Amino acid sequence: MSDESPWLVVGLGNPGKEYARNRHNVGFMVADLLASRVGAKFGRAKRAQAEMAEGRLGFGGPKLVLMKPLTYMNLSGAPVVSLAQFFKVPVSHVIAVHDELDVPFGQVRAKRGGGEGGHNGLRSMSKSLSSKEYARVRFGIGRPPGRQDPADYVLSDFSGAERKELEFLVDRAADVVEAIVLEGVEWAQNKYHGG
User: Which residues does the annotation list for site: Stabilizes the basic form of H active site to accept a proton (predicted)?
Assistant: First the structure.
């Protein structure tokens, strides 16, 4: 595959208003911001159970296919594969944007490959793509307080204090996605892992 291949940016989340502001839905939030940055609007994808938007990063820059699977988190992989195959996107050009319990709130991390850390959206993607070698933008949500079940925690909304920082952090996560597309995962790590 040439470097001219489009990039498939997968914002992981759950469809429906009741989930819209959940910690588990930061992937959708980042995808929405990226769509507005490239002047694209989300619409229903014909070939997958997903919302999709297309645009270019900068004038004549790389093509981005942004997607929000509509299958619920645990089944995200099938629509990802459908769009990756249709747009001929190699695994090396797939980026998953997701919430991450193992990264403290306020931090955004980039990486390629690795485990899923119990994240069902990533597990579904890895299984459907038959590979773990896609890039990830890990949006830190930290561990639940006290004895709260992680499953309940990820499906709860950000706290009032967190919401004050959320817009800035979603913006930063979108910057990390753009950095991966334009410069690569290592460059993004060097630039954004300082704080």
Answer: 99
DSSP strand pairing (50-56 vs 63-69): antiparallel
The pLDDT score that the predictor gives to residue 191 is 94
Q: Which H or E element spans position 97?
A: strand 94-100
pTM value is: 0.96
Each residue of 157-186: pLDDT tens digit?
Answer: 999 999 999 999 999 999 999 999 999 999
> Judging by beta carbons within 10 Å of its beta carbon (0-12, 13-18, 19+), is residue 93 exposed, middle or buried?
buried
Annotated catalytic sites, by residue? 24
Is 19 marked as binding a ligand?
yes
- Does the annotation place 120 within a ligand binding site? yes
* pLDDT at residue 60, rounded to an integer: 87
CB 66 within 8 A of CB 79: no
Do the annotations mark residue 192 as ligand-binding? Answer: no
In whole angstroms, what is the distance from residue 25 CA to residue 101 CA? 13
Cα gap 145→153, rounded to integer Å: 9
DSSP 48-87: SSEEEEEEESSTT--EEEEEEESS-GGGTHHHHHHHHHHT
Residue 2, pLDDT > 60, answer no
Asked if residues 134 and 94 have their Cβ atoms less than 8 Å apart, the reply is yes
pLDDT per residue over 31-57, tens digit each?
999 999 999 999 999 989 999 999 999
